[in-house]
Amino acid sequence: MNPNGQIALVTGGSSGLGEATARALAARGAKVGVLDISVERAQRVAGDIGGYAAECDVSNAESAEAAIAEIAAKLGEPRILVNCAGIAIGMKTVGKDGPHPLDLYRKVIEVNLIGTFNMIRLFADRAAKLDALEGGERGVIVSTASVAAYDGQMGQAAYSSSKSGIVGMTLPVARDLARSGIRVMTIAPGIFKTPMMAGMPQEVQDSLGAAVPFPSRLGEPSEYAALALHIVENQMLNGETIRLDGAIRMAPK
């Protein structure tokens, strides 16, 4: 799908991978709905790229439905969805203070996994009703997993569970939506320069980057955005997860 002139939704679009993707889509001529629970930061990004910002809690059905409807009313019906919203915690299954709090585990699953599916189902319901473009295509969905889906480290039980769930649903959802001409892909990034990473000491960042075989550095959000754009534009990409990680395989800790 050529993004030029199309409407795109980017969750978690106020910072990090989401912000880079929103800016890249806009640079290719898309009108971008920037969705984020931090609406003030989303408005800043939307203002820069000529898009529109809406507050959205991806894990809440009503909030997500209202945000998509708001973007559709302001910009038009979206054909592109990029899911970048997510949270992370580090906590062992059993630690010094006892077992992993179940509510914290549940929260990560609700935001990362259920939130991703929530956006997919609501977007796809609307996109399936649009007229088909060239080749029968009606929409493209790109979700964000992590290498933790495959190489989860100590303390990542909740995070890895949520991200492996996204990997696991990519193919069946792609098969579900094939008849509607909607493609479904997932990117599993390695260690990237996100706001969370930027808050770490430089020596920690350098150490993490050195663990990547090649290139031995942290990934740039623009590199994630470039792959998301390629997925949008390449109609044969469907039902698969692509690792974007410089060949890293995470150690146990």
From TrEMBL:
The keyword Oxidoreductase applies. Coiled coil: none annotated. Keywords: Oxidoreductase. It comes from the Bacteria. SUPFAM superfamilies: NAD(P)-binding Rossmann-fold domains (SSF51735). The keyword Oxidoreductase applies. GO terms for molecular function: oxidoreductase activity. InterPro entries: NAD(P)-bd_dom_sf, Sc_DH/Rdtase_CS, SDR_fam. Belongs to the short-chain dehydrogenases/reductases (SDR) family. This is 3-hydroxyacyl-CoA dehydrogenase. It comes from Mesorhizobium zhangyense. The lineage of its organism: Bacteria, Pseudomonadati, Pseudomonadota, Alphaproteobacteria, Hyphomicrobiales.
